[in-house]
Amino acid sequence: MTVTAPAGFEAAGVACGLKSSGAADLALIVNRGPRRAAAAVFTSNRAKANPIIWSQQVIADGEVAAIVLNSGGANCFTGAQGFQTTHATAEAVAEALAVGAGEVLVCSTGLIGEQLDRARLLAGVAAASGSLDAESGMDAARAIMTTDSVPKTAERRRDGWAIGGIAKGAGMLAPGLATMLVVITTDADLPAPALDAALRRAARVSFDRLDSDGCMSTNDQVTLMASGASGIAPDAEAFEAELTALCLDLAAQLQSDAEGASHDIRIEVVGAAREDDAVEVGRSIARNNLFKAAVFGNDPNWGRVLAAIGTTSAEFDPYDVDVSMNGVRVCTAGGPDRPRDEVDLSGRAVHLLVDLRVGDATATILTNDLTHDYVHENSAYSS
Amino acid sequence: MTVTAPAGFEAAGVACGLKSSGAADLALIVNRGPRRAAAAVFTSNRAKANPIIWSQQVIADGEVAAIVLNSGGANCFTGAQGFQTTHATAEAVAEALAVGAGEVLVCSTGLIGEQLDRARLLAGVAAASGSLDAESGMDAARAIMTTDSVPKTAERRRDGWAIGGIAKGAGMLAPGLATMLVVITTDADLPAPALDAALRRAARVSFDRLDSDGCMSTNDQVTLMASGASGIAPDAEAFEAELTALCLDLAAQLQSDAEGASHDIRIEVVGAAREDDAVEVGRSIARNNLFKAAVFGNDPNWGRVLAAIGTTSAEFDPYDVDVSMNGVRVCTAGGPDRPRDEVDLSGRAVHLLVDLRVGDATATILTNDLTHDYVHENSAYSS
């Protein structure tokens, strides 16, 4: 049921010919109310796609009636014609639903720098509008897939209200890879400012800490819409807890389906002077191609971990850092400890534990290894 | 002749068993004077290898009698024992040459986190000291190779004085990849401060702008030694011009032998408000795995170029940027121009031209594509 699990939402997923494969490529998710509160977070890339520019205006008043998402083209760097396509898409949805275009969010994902086929897109909007129902959340999840091998969905229920979500992509929000699009719905009755605060906090410790390949997308968007249809207004703490758990669930699904990856690497940084230091250290390791290639080769090359830490501005002493891989302490105080051949990296899950030994702040960053398949998939992407 | 091309220098390259292949793994280069002025630049990684820590002390007074370099081990994160190995190496060279240990630079390259075999290293120093001559610069160039497929050497002569150099590695200085080691000799008669100023300026526009994979090494060192044996003191401008040309030559050799690369990419950024902006933009593109994988696949994916620029703090308008690849203008003012299939990326050389259209500052960054072979070589490095 995914985004249609919470009461008050309808969805559809259709194929309108944007993908040459003929697979579903347009999703529409509608909030039937009674409330239409919403919040969203966007890529921090300064090069923003047309749907991002549009959606940032729409979300400003915290009221959203519907969100339309297409795969098969990012509509980024497509000039005035491209922006008009985004605008026309929102207008078509608005007309079909008898709402204002300023209440319709738009997301796009796919290749940058190519015009979307506007006629096909508008035909897709018409088809989706005609097939909306409260059961089709999974169809929407499938329609936003690009290189995803499986749809990503999640649901949580608590005390009479629910949250549901769909996601596509293999990366993070700010910065982000390969366009991560997420739509989360809830029938909790919460105003837009409360949704915004909860979404920002949840994204900060979930999608923001997923860094598959360090490449920031032009199209990333995470949207939260609340119908209020449960008639229940949960307290802020309970809502944020469920929302965060759902975001972490979706983030883990994105990680495990990252393009070409053969290992899911959880980088846990402890003993940092402050949380920002822990995040900076974790992200630096997550972006080190040499470390990531070593993990692909099942090689516990902890020297590359220390070399990556050395490029940060975090508080630490290179000769007082401990490193463990999958439970084996390979480095103590910046020197060799257990023999590296005691580390078993043959499984998909890798846990890298770095202790900076200067404080008690922590952060966990999720990443993947750098593989032949990553190179292959991304070299062949636009062909 | 390489580093022994300038008068006043002797060199040797020997095999002492640090490399399991039995290939040459220790180089010694000696300045016979009459002057012993020197300068060096080092990795900016805060995690510095033992030989870097040692050499930074040695170079402080601008006097260097010899430099000893080993492959087969980086001697980084090897604790007190590792530093003692570096110290003992310098002492052994000093004793053989009847100079002070404080006049001997040490460089190491290879795997991080493993102890060097000190007995083999010292035996290598003895062997090298006994085979020094003014013809063996090429032997030294071969002895510092790790994953290099060919030795990198250069020589320049002008007005009665000469410069010679050797290099290993496939990356850049600050930050740097896979340990770049460079030794440059000259028989010009220049004091250490003049050498230092010329070396910093030359490195800034050559090695510092080679960014093969964005990974900063713990062991990078570029050393310049002047014997004064020509008896000629060239003017600063002439010396810097020749030194810069030699550094650019070596940097191009490093780029074209980068691990696993199939394309040499020259990223030329023009129209920047300031040189720092142009460097930041070029480096951001050079580190974008998605762009680099696309080039591997001969795919002129200029959208990934703009996405990379969008992550920088440089002054630009995403919708007023022009991009050309191998002479074809694929993007004008942030929108599509010529069809991407007009771009031919089948050759090894790729020229990416980015015009930010806000000023007249420029910079060129050299990088490589991201290939299956890069992943393979770096996943198998320590095995």
From TrEMBL, chains A, B:
Keyword Acyltransferase: yes
EC number: 2.3.1.35, 2.3.1.1
GO molecular function terms noted in the UniProt entry: L-glutamate N-acetyltransferase activity; L-glutamate N-acetyltransferase activity, acting on acetyl-L-ornithine as donor
Annotated family: Belongs to the ArgJ family.
Keywords recorded for this protein, A-Z: Acyltransferase, Amino-acid biosynthesis, Arginine biosynthesis, Autocatalytic cleavage, Cytoplasm, Multifunctional enzyme, Transferase
Subunit comment: Heterotetramer of two alpha and two beta chains.
Xref: PANTHER family: ARGININE BIOSYNTHESIS BIFUNCTIONAL PROTEIN ARGJ, ARGININE BIOSYNTHESIS BIFUNCTIONAL PROTEIN ARGJ, MITOCHONDRIAL
InterPro entries the record matches: Arg_biosynth_ArgJ, ArgJ-like_dom_sf, ArgJ_beta_C
Location of the active site: T179 (nucleophile)
Subcellular locations according to the entry: Cytoplasm
Binding annotation for substrate: T146, K168, T179, E259, N378, S383
Main location: cytoplasm
GO terms (BP aspect): L-arginine biosynthetic process; ornithine biosynthetic process
Site (Involved in the stabilization of negative charge on the oxyanion by the formation of the oxyanion hole): T109, G110
Catalytic activity field: L-glutamate + acetyl-CoA = N-acetyl-L-glutamate + CoA + H(+); N(2)-acetyl-L-ornithine + L-glutamate = N-acetyl-L-glutamate + L-ornithine
A Gene Ontology cellular-component term: cytoplasm
Positions of the record's site feature: Cleavage: A178, T179
TM ranges: none
Pathway(s) served: Amino-acid biosynthesis; L-arginine biosynthesis; L-ornithine and N-acetyl-L-glutamate from L-glutamate and N(2)-acetyl-L-ornithine (cyclic): step 1/1; Amino-acid biosynthesis; L-arginine biosynthesis; N(2)-acetyl-L-ornithine from L-glutamate: step 1/4
Name of this protein: Arginine biosynthesis bifunctional protein ArgJ
Protein role: Catalyzes two activities which are involved in the cyclic version of arginine biosynthesis: the synthesis of N-acetylglutamate from glutamate and acetyl-CoA as the acetyl donor, and of ornithine by transacetylation between N(2)-acetylornithine and glutamate.
